[in-house]
UniProtKB/TrEMBL annotation:
Kinase among keywords: no
Catalytic activity: a (3R)-hydroxyacyl-[ACP] + NADP(+) = a 3-oxoacyl-[ACP] + NADPH + H(+)
Entry keyword annotation includes Secreted: yes
SMART domains: PKS_KR
Subcellular location: Secreted, Cell wall
Signal peptide: none
PANTHER family: 3-OXOACYL-(ACYL-CARRIER-PROTEIN) REDUCTASE, 3-OXOACYL-[ACYL-CARRIER-PROTEIN] REDUCTASE FABG
Name of the protein this chain belongs to: 3-oxoacyl-[acyl-carrier-protein] reductase MabA
Annotated source species: Nocardia aurea
Family from the record: Belongs to the short-chain dehydrogenases/reductases (SDR) family.
């Protein structure tokens, strides 16, 4: 029996927020699966470091400084990817920003910033990349939302609302782009060991901390960025083409 490859033709992928945590793991996993990968991040140096790790492992990657709240920046980044690596037909919207504030103290500026990074950034990146997918007649979009969208979280009304918006956006876009050969799914991570999670713990917003939370997690461990990367890589494969508009939970059983 010959091994099954992920793709008939190696695609070019864009991973936003790929300079850190989950995004970096997704970028490396997509490369290992055979994609050329562009890493977009607010922190250009971090994006380049992820790209250098991929290149050192034998893959093709570039790191690009892109702020997903700036449409001109996104369009320039997508143009650069097209010129350097070919038309992007895999997009992982992973860049995210959390926040912990009492509902009555959330300012308009804070509300708008959380929505801009998590929700509008996802919309703008999809709109910038989808024409390449439509032209190719094939595409895979994975939007990283959050278990906060499913359960809600105190002090996170803005973040929970933005991520719930990503879920609704995913379901609507899946229906619109399905006839073009493009799937759109969302992974809501829960309790993944990244700089974001450790910052939350350090600021005292994770109850008794990571170790205590492990005790109430059905699989009895904290998630790793690679857990999300594995699910994401699966959803981008050719043979995942009948899966679209889905919420693909990866949370150790914490959110059922
Ligand atoms: P992380 O380590 O903080 O990584 C997030 C990355 O996104 C950082 O590199 C950050 O850059 C980048 N970013 C932030 N704003 C950006 C912008 N405007 N434009 C471009 N890049 C931007 O967090 P993570 O835990 O890996 O989170 C990845 C995704 O998973 C996020 O969408 C997050 O909401 C979601 N998530 C994570 C967990 C978890 O348990 N870790 C749970 C649920 C959902 P800077 O560092 O320069 O800001």
């Amino acid at each position: 029996m010959s091994p099954v490859s992920a793709w008939a033709h190696s695609p070019t992928a864009i991973v936003t927020g790929g300079g850190s945590g989950i995004g970096a793991a997704i970028a490396q996993r997509l490369s290992a699966q055979g994609a050329a990968v562009a890493i977009f991040d607010l922190d250009e140096a971090a994006a380049v470091i992820t790209a250098e790790k991929i290149t050192a492992a034998g893959g093709h990657a570039i790191g690009v400084g892109v702020d997903v709240t700036d449409r001109d920046d996104i369009d320039a980044g997508v143009d650069r990817v097209h010129r350097s690596l070919g038309p992007p037909t895999v997009l992982v919207n992973n860049a995210g920003l959390d926040g912990f504030e009492k509902f009555l103290t959330i300012t308009a500026q804070s509300w708008q910033r959380i929505l801009a990074v998590n929700l509008t950034g996802t919309f703008d990146c999809c709109q910038a990349v989808a024409p390449h997918m439509i032209e190719a007649g094939w595409g895979r979009i994975v939007n990283i939302s959050s278990s906060s969208a499913q359960t809600g979280n105190p002090l996170m009304t803005h973040y929970s609302a933005a991520k719930a918006g990503v879920v609704g956006f995913t379901k609507a876009l899946a229906q619109e782009l399905g006839p073009r050969g493009i799937t759109v799914n969302t992974i809501p991570p829960g309790f993944i060991d990244t700089p974001m999670l450790r910052r939350t713990e350090d600021r005292g917003f994770l109850g008794l901390g990571v170790d205590a939370a492990v005790a109430t997690t059905p699989v009895r461990r904290v998630g790793q960025p690679e857990d999300i990367a594995a699910a994401c890589a699966f959803l981008t494969r050719d043979d995942a083409g009948y899966i679209t508009g889905q919420i693909f939970g990866v949370n150790g059983g914490r959110t059922l």
